[in-house]
Structure formats: structure tokens, C-alpha cells
Amino acid sequence: MGTASRPNPLAFLDEELAALRERHLYRPLRVMSSAQGPIVSLDGRRVISLSSNDYLGLTHHPRMKRAALEAVQQFGAGSGAVRTIAGTMTLHEELEADLAAFKHTEAVLTFQSGFTANTGVIPTITGETDLIVSDELNHASIIDGMRLSKAPRKVFKHADVEALREVLREATTKGRDGEGAPYRLILVVTDGVFSMDGDIAPLPGIVAAAEEFGAAVMIDDAHASGVLGEDGRGTVNHFGLDGRVAIQVGTLSKAVGVLGGYVAGSQALRDILIQRARPFLFSTSHPPAVAAACREAIRIMQEEPELHERLWANTRRFKAELARLGFNIGTSETPITPVLLGDSELTIRFSNRLFDEGVFGTSVVFPTVALDRARIRTIVTAAHTEELLDRALGAFDTVGRELGVISG
What we know:
Elements: H1 11-22, E1 39-42, E2 45-49, H2 62-75, H3 90-103, E3 107-111, H4 114-125, E4 131-135, H5 140-148, E5 153-156, H6 161-174, E6 186-191, H7 203-212, E7 216-220, H8 235-238, E8 247-251, E9 261-265, H9 267-276, H10 278-281, H11 288-303, H12 306-325, E10 336-342, H13 344-356, E11 359-360, E12 362-364, E13 374-379, H14 386-402
Parallel strand pairs: 2-11, 4-5, 4-6, 6-7, 7-8
Antiparallel strand pairs: 1-2, 3-9, 8-9, 10-13, 12-13
């Protein structure tokens, strides 16, 4: 039988792609041919980027580049193995010690990404006799981590401490069998900063509720790492809750400016993850350049406070101007500023017109967000100048009036 007459078992993928294109939901990848930064070369054009997670502008910081180059010269380009075989270098141990001190925890274990940190820790420490309680808007990596666990789960209304308390009250009263048999562990999981809306979890109330009912708290602090708290220590430190949150998941690929994730907590937690967390056991360790640059980032965040000052000054100014122009920017409290447009097709068209005007603002549409919650998701960084922000705001003004989103 020739290949021309052989049936294609994956033909349905073409139909699904065609449906996405017909609904104007298909998004091709834009290709960057420059260094990451406030201005980038994207699809052959120089544009102002409002779509990077490089909050502090560390991806191109000279100290970061120097640390990476020196590590390559000394240790080579790669680590060569998973860490349980022959891939644990002094750089990895030193990075984890630095992170533990920075986060005010006993120990840290690094993973290849924040996603693998969540999908590593949740199924490792929970099982059939446990219960996971999750905020309804938690990140996809938390959701996938829960799916990999055999533990039952309950969901509470977004950022609603009283709803959480009711779930915990019922769980501790009825137990895992409905007759009061206690769960071995009740794990309350929340994002620290919610990546779509930029709001901050009400962590003091969450921690108080968990302590009331004997539960442990786990927080995914990806978008708070390097942004909130003293020197960017995260949401736990921001609220003065050091020592009261059992598990903190962070990222090394946003404000830290490099790659990877980590789990911060007790020494026992680190040890059990080394023995059982599948993403850790079956993934090659970070290249030396990555580990060295991450270590340097921690030092920079503590030694160059002007980066955080500039990040927050830019954030306040950008939000105020968007609101003054008449855009709906939701309830964001962080550098993540959604420009809520509602309709997916309008949002994609708005993003494309911004690009025509020299501004890259990512459109976020269904199924990432609800059908009526499509938005342009923007992030300003410490690297943006006032001139760049003025130009970006001018583009929003022009496109907003053209498409009838704002008037005046």
C-alpha cells in the first residue's frame, strides 16, 4: 500500500486547527531574533515588549552574563546526568543553599521549571488518605500536579477565605470516610500572585484558616519570586509569614531571569523529593551556566535595590495611565496588568494592531481564560524607560480609539 492511500490516524488534528483558525483563536509563534529586553526584534520588527516575565531586566544584566560565561569555562556546557546519578555539581548545592537562606527556609530543591516543581511535589507528598484543597484559579501546573496525585481534592472560590474555611471545616468534621476518620494531610494550595489577573492571594487569612483546622499551606510564588517581599523574597515574606507556610514553590525563569523552579521548605521535604519526585529523578540537572547565573541573580536582588524601585515606579505609572485612558485593568496589584476586552476575536485583533504600532502585548483568550474574559496581558519591567512607556501608552490610546474600546 502506498503512502498516498494509507489513512492518517491523526487527521483530526488538521480539523481542530482549522476550527481554531475559523474562530480566530489560532496563534502562531512569534520568533525573537534579539536578546530579551524592553525592545526586541520580533518577526523581523523592532517592538516594545510588554510580554516578558523578565521583571527586573536580569536576562541581559552584565553580572549575570559574566557569571554564566565563567561557569561554562570552569564546568563546561552541560551537567551530563540526572542528579541522582552523576549530575549533582557543587554549583547546584550552592544555589540551593543560597535560595534556602534567601527564602528563610531550612532547605531548597531545584527543578527544571516551576511546572515540574509543582508536578513533582504535589503527587510525591499526597496520596489516597490525604486531601488537596485548591483555589479555583490556580495555575495549570498545580492542576496537573493534583491530577497526578491519588488524593481527592476540593476547590474553593477564588481568594475567598470564608469559602476555604467551610471546606476545611467539613473535611475535618466528616473526615475521609464521611464518619470522621482523619486525613493524614490536608494540603491547601494557592498561587501567590495569580498570573492572569495580577491579584495577590489573601495569604494571611489562608494561613490562619489552615492553622485553625490543622492543614498545611503550599504556595506557588512564581510571579511573586523576585517581585514581592524584602529583596523579592516572595508573598510569604511580603505578609510577614516566614515559618508559617510549609511549602513554597518558586521560579528561576521570571524575575530571576534564567531558567528553572524550586521547592522551599523543610529538610525532610527536600530529602523525600530527592527520593521520589519523578521530574527530579528523570531529568538532567541544570547546566552550569544556569545555576551560576541564578546564584548571581540572588546577589543582585539584594545588592541593587534600585531595580525593585524602578519596577514598582513603572508599574504604578503604567496602571494609572491605562486607567486614565479608560481601559478596564481589573484588580491587579502587581506588574501584571490585564487590559480586559472581553471578546476573543477583538482581543486578538487588538494585539495585532498593537504590533503594527510597534508594541508587543500578548492576547490571552479562551480556553486560557473564560470566554468573556479575554485580555491583553501586559507586564512592565524595571528595564522600561519613561519614553518607552509613553510610546506604549500612545499605541494603546490609538488602537483603543480605532477599535472602539475607549472613546474621547
